[in-house]
Amino acid sequence: GAGVSQSPSNKVTEKGKDVELRCDPISGHTALYWYRQSLGQGLEFLIYFQGNSAPDKSGLPSDRFSAERTGGSVSTLTIQRTQQEDSAVYLCASTGRLTTYEQYFGPGTRLTVT
Amino acid sequence: QKEVEQDPGPLSVPEGAIVSLNCTYSNSAFQYFMWYRQYSRKGPELLMYTYSSGNKEDGRFTAQVDKSSKYISLFIRDSQPSDSATYLCAMSVDTGRRALTFGSGTRLQVQP
Fold first, then answer.
1. Taking 60 as the threshold, does the pLDDT of residue A1 lie above it?
2. Contact (Cβ atoms closer than 8 angstroms) between residue B105 and residue B7
3. Min Cα–Cα distance to chain A from B7, Å
């Protein structure tokens, strides 16, 4: 079946602009994660959604970052007033409620802030 | 100090060699241990997961977890050029959000 999809695959934006990144999880997966992969930093957790529960936002690096998940499916990560240090690959992963250790990743969105 | 340490490599081996990749960790609460493979400009692909200590084998891949030493390994037998990628170890606790904590990745190059 279809895997996790993300769009856009690449995004170049000017410093100070807002960006929206989209994630379509695997159908039927209730849990959705956002991670960020930076050079020299590896993959770091940003935010977690599980079904209709309140999201776990403990990994968001600043209040410029926010995310929502509509209808328990598609998720959007928004970065406001982008900074150069926001340049990274943003990865989305989804998994079933009882198998959260088996996280399946999308191809990522490569964000470059100029 | 990072919770998960992984030698970044690069590791270069000839085709057919046995490859050993390793991670150490400091959080004794980790219970799930995963290995992901990531090709250039692609998302990580789950290879194997292990719960708690022990070994798990899947084809040419064997994962080992030694919780007493806080040390995990991935062995690749009969390595192929197509195995050339970055290998990421990842771990999670067994409760809560179970977000993955990743190592920095080891870049592997298998020479034909």
1. no
2. no
3. 12
